Amino acid sequence: MPPSDLRQMAVVTRYELLKYLRGKRLLIIIVLVAVIGVLNLVVPPTIGSGYDPDPTTFTSGMLNEVGILVVLCATFFGADAIVSEFEQKTGLLLFPNAVNRHVLVLGKFIASAIVSVGAVALYYAITAVAAVVIDGSLAANTSLSFLYCLAYLFGILAITYFFSAIFRSSVYSIVLTFFTFFLILPIIDRVGSSIAHFKPWFSITFASGIVLDIFQQPYPLDMVRTVERTFRNTTRTLTVAQYHPSVAQGLAVIFVYFIIGLILSLVITKRREM
Amino acid sequence: MTDAIVTENLRKQFGQFEALKDLNLAIEPGVCVGYLGPNGAGKTTTIKILTSLLRPTGGKAFLNGIDVVHNPKEALASVGAVVETPQLYPQLTPMEILAYFGQLRGLDSNVIRERSVEVLEEVKMSDSANKRTGEFSTGMKQRVAIAQALLHDPSILILDEPTVGLDPRGMIEVRELIKQLKERDFTIFMSSHLLNEVQEVCDKVAIVDKGALLVYDTVANLSTVSESRVSLTAVEPITAEQCSSVQALPNVRSVKRVATSELLITIEGGLREQSDLLDQVKSTGLRVAFYTPAGSAIEDIYLRLVPEEEY
User: Fold this and answer.
1) Total structural domains in chain A?
2) Distance (Å, rounded) from C-alpha A157 to C-alpha A151?
């Protein structure tokens, strides 16, 4: 008899990790982490501005790009995780085994999550060490920010798996992942906040604001105010809005994306034909 | 005893196209069945449903009595399959791929190691056992795919065109391998386009066309009921009168002139009728230079059952 689902899941995860270790993507992500870190550490003194003496400001500045890293990890390790089995025809070998499809999806997801968490953790580690070396102490809430970032990573990864489950080509899945999280949702966030003046609480990229907002003391609140601006003798009243997700709201939205993305990817992959 | 493979009113629809129409098949354990049919007949669709790659529109499919649609994990536990020409994970070596699937099937690590060496030897891939598969040819990939299908010593082996992509030597080796497996009581369900291959290797033949089963019987039974064809080459050119004389002989269904001194004769019956015909042809005064069977019994039955426009 075949082993339990849990044991099979562990086997799938182990071999997915082996494939990542043997492939180039993990290496590329590590290089990217190093490049982002080095740029953040080298550019300020090079242009003469120096480092921020406050560890909190320094750390949140370093972590400005962590959202990009999260999306890159999801794109590299999740966008073609499922579709490639169909597209590359490796599924013809894998699926006729005595293993349920949901086990394969979850095993792959765990492997994707492990390497992505590794990459994000490496960047946080670089940031933390830099903060201690440069400013003498670690910023408060760095660990909370890391945890929120991991939550965001899982949410993004789940949606990426959903894209990977629905498309026939990994190119579509990769492009959609990239555009959704780098363009579409950020545009909605920006237009919502600054032009339409509504709080885009439903957007996972907006929700990811908790990763950096947690460094601010006190935690930032929504702010909507009107200002009068005079231009060529005409005075106009403008509304300026700054929205921030509360921690609870941000985590809840990320959790919903995670659950929906993962469930959809499981259901679609189970029903998908080859 | 439970049949090894059973399909009950199996149906599969792709949009408007009906790939399988109430396919009913029951394959007893320990036989090697050749699954034949023209392109689009439903062979691969059947195999993909049996291996949980496709979901049927209707009907049921069982492997060792277990419903493969509702319980694929248990149903596929004792099945080894090679469907189409699968690709391998380029980052892994054949040994690692076998270890991966062996662990998924719950084999002990020592057993996996021993069996991997054995099956790679069987498919003549021992030399490449520890090389990454990224640069492997189609034939090498096919051999590794066959090796993984054999790894857990399954009771049922499902092979979809197992010699596709192999060079002539590889085709012969795979055929020999299947013959060896037959002796080890495997139930083998093998689709193929190569009729001679099926006749050489299989005990029984199932012919499917337009999604429906046309015939399922032993090769021996099919050979006896079949009409057969012989090619006759005369020493001199064959006249129209001689052609008519041959046509008029007993058991002769049709005579087709394929060259000035060569006839293709279709007769009702098998070897005995072919022998009788030769004597009768000689008695007409026709000097026969060559008299050879044209095609195998399976070919004859296939050509009779599957209309010409389909292949």
Assistant:
1) 1
2) 10
Structure tokens, B84: 């189409």
CB contact under 8 A, B88 and A19: no
**Burial grade of A152 (CB within 10 A; 0-12, 13-18, 19 or more):** buried
Tell how strand B32-36 and strand B5-14 pair up.
unpaired
Measured CA to CA, the distance from residue A170 to residue B156 in angstroms comes to: 34
ipTM of the complex: 0.89
**Do B213 and B206 meet the contact criterion of CB atoms below 8 Å apart?**
yes
d(CA B272, CA B238): 25
| Structural contact between residues B166 and B50, judged by C-beta atoms closer than 8 angstroms | no
Q: Which of A11, A23, A93 lies closest to B86 in CB terms?
A: A93
pTM, whole model, 2 decimals?
A: 0.87
How, if at all, do strands B156-160 and B204-209 pair?
unpaired
Instruction: Count A/B contacts: CB-CB distance under 8 Å.
Output: 91
Tokens of B277: 């015909």
pLDDT tier at A229, thresholds 50, 70, 90 = confident
Could you tell me the residue range of the domain that residue A113 belongs to? 5-271
Residue A205 has pLDDT above 80, yes or no: yes
Which positions 127-156 of B are in contact with A (Cβ < 8 Å)?
A: 132, 145, 148
Residue A220 to chain B, least CA–CA distance (Å) = 47
Nearest CA in chain A to B144: A93
